[in-house]
Specification:
Blueprint lengths: L13 H25 L18 H17 L5 E3 L3 E2 L9 E8 L1 H6 L5 E8 L2 E9 L4 E6 L3 E4 L2 E3 L11 E4 L10 H10 L3 E4 L3 H9 L5 E4 L4 H14 L2 E3 L13 E4 L1 H14 L9
GO molecular function: inositol monophosphate 1-phosphatase activity; metal ion binding
GO biological process, one term: signal transduction
EC number: 3.1.3.25
Length: 283
Amino acid sequence: MTLLSSRTARPVEPGMLSRALEVAGRLANDATDVITATAGRGAHPDVTESPFDWVTDTDRILERHTRRVLTSEFPGVPVVGEESGADQGADEAEYRWVVDPVDGTANYVAGLPWCAYSLALLDDSGPVVGVLADPYRAQIYAAARGRGARANGHPLRLAGHGAPAGAIVCTELIPTGPWPGMGGFIERAAAARAGVRVLGSAALSIAQVALGHAGAAVLLSYREWDVAAAVALALEAGAVVLDRRGEASPLPADGLLVATPAMAERVLDWWQDTLPEGRRGQT
């Protein structure tokens, strides 16, 4: 297992970092106002294949607003969004923005207080800037490469969870339900006296590690916009980010473990041991 430091990524011009943080923070505050004003109050989702994969008017409104502001403030930097897809040239661009206007839409529709607005600036080394709005807790979480992570302006730095006993491990379901091996993973965690929680927002699950509330988060099914901002936060707070083979990656594409350094190896062992044989070591 190789630990990953945000300082190994290529440097970014300081003015770009500062401006990206300022604009992303402004957008996160806008999203907080919209989400808290509308959650659970007559939202009308479009039901697709899964009733937990809803798109609401709020998703569309926030993404359109985000695109409008980013296009004005950062001309030429493409935006990739959950609802509207990718701007032309996003795959080849030096930088790209990725946005999930409401991560945890099923919770939002139901009025459950657990969803987030997620916005990140990426380059070929991974997250450059990540900002999450946690509307129900009135928190804005922000991170920039090499500048650390903050919650409402207060610095975040991991210090605890030296042993699994008493720790919380967050995970999320895949679209069809539990991920392969999830039952065995929960049993392994319980045997070590750790608790597994499924809370309904990939971004906030990862953020709990950065905040020191959880020892680890394990995800098998996600998109870049779901997790990029939260991974930025976790990296800058001192967390370990690994793929399911145990290789360090700034933004794993196929299986993601975010953990405190003291918990990472143990949780990785539970995960790898309980994955079906055919899925171990896949890329």
